[in-house]
Amino acid sequence: MNPFGYRNGRLHAEDVDLADLARETGTPCYVYSRSAIEERWRAFDEAFTGRDHLVCYAVKANSNLAVLDALARLGSGFDIVSGGELERVLAAGGDPARTVFSGVGKTPEEMRRALEVGIACFNVESEPELQTLNAVAGAVGRRAPVSLRVNPDVDPATHPYIATGLKESKFGIDIAAARAVYRRARGLEHIVVKGVASHIGSQLTDVSPFVLALERVMELVGDLMDDGFDLEHLDLGGGLGIRYADETPPEPVDYALALLDRLQRFGSRYQRLKLLIEPGRAIVGNAGLLLTRVLYLKHAADRSFAVVDAAMNDLLRPALYDAWHDIAPLQLDESRERRVYDIVGPVCESGDFLGHARELAIAPGDLLVVASAGAYGAVMSSNYNTRPRVPEVMVDGDRYHVVRRRESVSDLLAPESRLPG
Ligand SMILES: Cc1ncc(COP(=O)(O)O)c(C=O)c1O
Ligand SMILES: N[C@@H](CCCC[NH3+])C(=O)O
Prior knowledge:
Function: Specifically catalyzes the decarboxylation of meso-diaminopimelate (meso-DAP) to L-lysine.
Catalytic activity: meso-2,6-diaminopimelate + H(+) = L-lysine + CO2
Strand content: 15-25%
Number of domains: 2
CATH topology of the largest domain: TIM Barrel
Structural class: alpha/beta
CATH superfamily of the largest domain: Alanine racemase
Protein name: Diaminopimelate decarboxylase
Bound molecules: pyridoxal-5'-phosphate, lysine
Shape: globular
Enzyme class: lyase
CATH architecture of the largest domain: Alpha-Beta Barrel
Cofactor: pyridoxal 5'-phosphate
Largest sheet: 9 strands, mixed
Radius of gyration: 23 Å
Distance between the termini: 60 Å
């Protein structure tokens, strides 16, 4: 479902007129659709029906408490990468027993807290991390549930900054070395091996790299079973892409069918393995957008700029990855002159843009939307140029709730101090 659409020339999110919302909240402002988020989570969940599974939403994509709350109510699991994300899951009513912890740099403090609250599994990314976890678990009198995150060396055919499953990446343990590490893990008193994990990258628009990674991981699973490991689950990570422009990523059901079909072809001893998946972007990406207002139109010798009130500190993806997000006016007005603009923000960087060469019929004061901003939008925002973070709003039918208030400049100054004396 696309929760965003024009009615009588005015853009709505579900049943809310976004121009009315913008008047109340001001701009810039992130807007999410609760029903779109829920529908996407359910699409993944239903796609794996018939197989023991858990959809562990990747919190990093959008960690707003209201988003986590909505998913926790559906029974979602969570994939976290920091102690901070763990606290968010707990604060939102998420179940630690359905939470897995990924990331290459978990600290002993983060491990201790995760053990205390009883998370489902640590996806361990190196042998030194495994040793530290063993020591921390021993100190708190627990055994740590563990999967090794293996790196299957598969090219996910995505932006190099978000590819993680190639052997030159910092993520995971080389799959060729993993069997030996599992054997050593068995000798560690405070570690319990639960499964195998892998994640190859983000914004994948084809199922074949997922299937190839699965095949490589299943070979290891077979070896481990031969070694006598009683594996409970297989974590296939996240990474399914969304449509930003003209991509045609598989739907969750096609992604699931491809994986389930391939799994089916392995013998019966593999069929009781519980499947974990960690989608982030594919659940929230197209359930959110960024509202912004045109401040000035500026015509230079060979190009025109629309200077808007949102900037790279609010939505970093265009500046960081040269990512393309659709940009459209909130109210259609065909009487206006169409022109090609670079859509830029107020930040003092030449790389501060939201879109290049967009043909739009706009005037100063107009409201615009930057689409597909529900994932890796607000979570990657910063206070660069002392710009307060913008509000986040959750639309629910014909109502909406401000689920993160706009920061003020005093919020930004408060933690700092002048020199003593
Ligand atoms: C371990 C892990 N799981 C899940 C995800 C979620 O990825 P995506 O938002 O592409 O589904 C990521 C990020 O790429 C990740 O590193
Ligand atoms: N931040 C990236 C995705 C990172 C995935 C993290 N493992 C993006 O906006 O596309």
